[in-house]
Amino acid sequence: MKRHKHDSERHHSEGHHSETKAVRGAANLDKKNGPFATPIYQTSTFEVTDNDEQVRATHSDHFYTRYGNPTNTVAEKTIAELEGVDAALTFASGMGAVTTTLMALLKSGDHVVAQRDIYGGVNKFLSQWLPKMGIETTFVDTTKYEQHARAIRPNTKLLYIESPTNPTLRVVDFKKVVDMARQHNLLTMIDATFGTPINQHPAEYGIDLVMHSGTKYLSGHSDLICGAVCGRHELMEKIWETRTTLGNCMDPHASWALVRGLKTLAVRVARQNENARRVAEFLLEHAKVRSVNYPFLKNHPQYDVARAQMSGGGGMVSFEVEGTGEDARRVSEAMRLFTLAPSLGSVESLVSIPVLTSHAMIPAEERAKMGVTEQMIRLSVGIENAEDLIADLERALEAVGARESVGVAG
């Protein structure tokens, strides 16, 4: 990207592991005098010495914060390092990242093939907003790749995937998707929020664009809203030009908080991987649980794919209670350590009912096709003690059928 002349230099973190890149990925490791912590450039504009310099600054992060900002650059470079790509851009939200990217790369008459079971807000944008711009989307089952292939048309431009999926935790075979896209000369874009740059690296398989709702794991503390997209220079330049027009850039103070959160990403995700695995194994054996979704459970339908392309199963678990939607609500409300709230990826454990939150905007018949039921509960497992979390779940599951039982006894 012209805006970040230093992006192409591939910094001193080249060759380092993800844990190191998360902490030092955007840092200049040369000996120097200056601030150690990332400064907050809380400014809307930047002064110049003359008009020639003003022209040169236009494509830099020292022109106007809608175009770029040095604090934002640190966050973006760190994310690019973590994903192993040329460049990254941050946005005011995850949805801002998705919508800006799609509008940058698609035009009227284009066609998209997308998974059916993706985040509800993206499903709504693809199915209700893009048609207003003359762009059509065909939705297909996530792991039925023959459906993907049949859906491709002469005017198809992009394959949109999500892995692991929200909230069903299905895992996409990156190799199959990339092979299909290359055969038809299509772009590929993934929502990798659940996977994190610690557990998976889609770009290594050839995925063109990797998107994160940075609100979640990248930040990790439920205290900011942001999105990120990263990929090749030529694609990122188009997205940058669109972002400057739409104006949904990230605030420098939020970027500073994101940089601070990224430094602990690897250690947080490692703990969340372990806690979520233990929670999933507990739920799998519980009499009041109908089914459990977690990529690293051996009964997961894509277990082999998950183990091949992921280093950890992630911090998300979803399960269905044996009972009704009302039972699921009671269980979620009975939890104490799992806080009833939307979103995910925080150090604190959260619980939500997808049909009431992330997928509330999706019609019931479409949710059924996705496998999102009224009995489903989604857990975002934090970094608390795993035994305490399991004890909280065990107490909460006593609420299944409790009202009916009281009625019968009465």
Summarize the structure.
This protein has helices spanning 18-24, 51-57, 70-83, 94-105, 120-129, 145-151, 174-183, 196-199, 233-246, 252-262, 265-284, 303-309, 325-334, 364-370, 386-397, 402-409, and strands spanning 87-91, 111-115, 136-140, 156-162, 187-191, 209-212, 227-231, 289-293, 316-321, 339-340, 350-352, 376-380. The chain has 410 residues and is α/β, with parallel strands linked by helices. It has a 7-stranded mixed sheet, sandwiched between helices. The protein has a 5-stranded mixed sheet with strand order 8-9-12-11-10.
Strand content: 5-15%
Q: Distance between the terminal alpha carbons, to the nearest Å? A: 70 Å
Classify the secondary structure makeup into a structural class: alpha/beta
DSSP summary: helix tally: 16
- Proportion in helices: 25-40%
Reading the helices and strands in chain order gives HHHEHEHEHEHEHEEHHHEHEHEEHEHH
Q: What is the spatial order of strands in the main beta sheet? A: 1-7-6-5-4-2-3
